[in-house]
Amino acid sequence: MTINRIARRGGRTVSLLALAVGTVAATALPAAAEEDRGPTREQIMADCESGEGQCTFNDPKVGKAYLGERRPVSDLLFNCSSSPASQSITWSDTVGSSHSTGVSVTTGGGLAGIFTASVTATYNYTWQTSHTESSTATVTVAPGEVGWISRAQLMRQVSGTWQTHYEDRKWGHYFWYVPDVITSPAPSGTDGRRSAVMVDSRKMTAEERASCSSAAGTDRVYLQAR
């Protein structure tokens, strides 16, 4: 049974569609018997991943690129001396994807391929499910302060709907739909924007100042893993 076939049946269309199509709500459903409340979003996505349901990602809409959350990506540089200190620090950052369904499409299997193929076919754009970048930068820290490197990854969102088609009715329907929003890293230069790398610093805490005397074997400027 397909949607097109159902649509040709005139006055019976509404009742037949009710049997053929189900949509999983974006929010949690109230407690009820499983046969009454239908599948969870996780169950539908698991069937997509396993191939039990024939799955597509429909009508993808790509949003504008934006800078994601600023976060530390390097070790901490402590300056216990009485003058500014500079040091070259290597940093590394890996940013993955997040999904409003709560189910990742980046862990292998068919979902990542289905999603990427849909976005590429619609926008001629290769979607990144994760991005890793590393480099070295010089951090300058004032006396009595701690410095580190932070980074904000350029991000982009795609909204769309997962459609799963079963050969036989499952949970009372041939089709189930799960709306989703996927947030993933975007290539530098997307929409004229770039990821940002920054040097941050703050005053030492009282405990950190006290630890300066224990930084043996250094010139009172030392690195500590974050």
Note the topology:
Elements lengths: L2 H5 L5 H8 E3 L10 H4 L3 H10 L3 E9 L3 E2 L3 E2 L3 E4 L5 E11 L2 E2 L10 H14 L7 E11 L3 E8 L1 E17 L2 E13 L10 E8 L2 H6 L9 E4 L2
Parallel strand pairs: 1-11
Antiparallel strand pairs: 2-10, 3-10, 4-9, 5-9, 5-13, 6-8, 7-11, 9-12, 10-11
Describe the structure.
The protein has helices at residues 3-7, 13-20, 34-37, 41-50, 110-123, 206-211; strands spanning 21-23, 54-62, 66-67, 71-72, 76-79, 85-95, 98-99, 131-141, 145-152, 154-170, 173-185, 196-203, 221-224. The protein is elongated and about 75 Å long. It contains 6 helices and 13 strands.
Name some characteristics of this structure.
226 residues; alpha+beta; 6-stranded mixed sheet; 5-stranded antiparallel sheet; 21% helix; 42% strand; elongated; disordered N terminus
Mean pLDDT: 81
Oligomer class: single chain
* Molecular shape: elongated
Strand percentage lies at 35-45%
Question: Unreliable runs, pLDDT <50, ≥5 residues?
Answer: 1-19, 25-35
Offer a quick outline of the entry.
With 226 residues, this protein is α+β, with helices and mostly antiparallel strands. The protein has helices at residues 3-7, 13-20, 34-37, 41-50, 110-123, 206-211, and strands at 21-23, 54-62, 66-67, 71-72, 76-79, 85-95, 98-99, 131-141, 145-152, 154-170, 173-185, 196-203, 221-224.
